[in-house]
Task: structure prediction
Amino acid sequence: MSVLYAFIFSGTVCLLAEIILNHTKLTPGHITTLFSVFGSILAFFNIYDFFIKKCNMGAIVLISNFGNSLYNAGYDGFVKKGIIGLFSNMLTKSSLVITSTIIFSFFFVCLFRSKD
Amino acid sequence: MNINNYKKIVKKHTKKSNFLHNYLAAFLSGGLLGALSQIIYLSLKNIFSVSSTNAKSYISLFIIFIASFLTAIGLFDTLIIKLRSGLIIPTTGFAHSITSSAIDAKNEGLIKGIGSNFFHLAGSVILYSIIASFVLVLLRVITFG
Result:
């Protein structure tokens, strides 16, 4: 059942992005930024956690989860250590995405050459 | 030539993209990515008894690895033209934007090329989501305590 939920949720979000992409002049760069900011807004209203609980990976593979994890980590830090915690904790949960992207990308860029 | 005539000619020659086809492709590919990763997650969790946080991390790593690899060998661009948002909105889009901007600037050198172009496109995602999250955390703390 959760597979179906994951399919529907991630498919719907991608469909939404496609509609925005087709009917406005925004580029894919705008769209990814918009959706990650939208993720932290959803986290602000405690909605994103509900989606993660319902459809697990369907919500985690999306870029909106980046904003969500930033927000959650920042809030946890604030609860634990106050304003210092907000600064020092912000990137902890999304560290995996940022670090792995940097490492893999640099590795492959060194190995391969651009086609054109 | 007056500007209205020019616009008419441009409109006549721009290719009409098939909206319905694009929507279907985005929905199916995005959904399939989510469903597949959910299947892998469930099997990692139940068959190989990996803890749920570790399973999530492995899958994210795998997706980013595949996306960077396919971008580097040049396959990902053709996939994105076909599937569009289905691959831009998942984490694959993030990895793709970093790898493609770095590989395009490779022959300009290590510092001026790869280094300064690495976050060319993905920088805005990181910047604005950090700012938004920061402001929202402050807002929540001020309003709800």
About this structure: Chain A has a mean pLDDT of 92. Chain A touches chain B through 69 residues (CB under 8 Å).
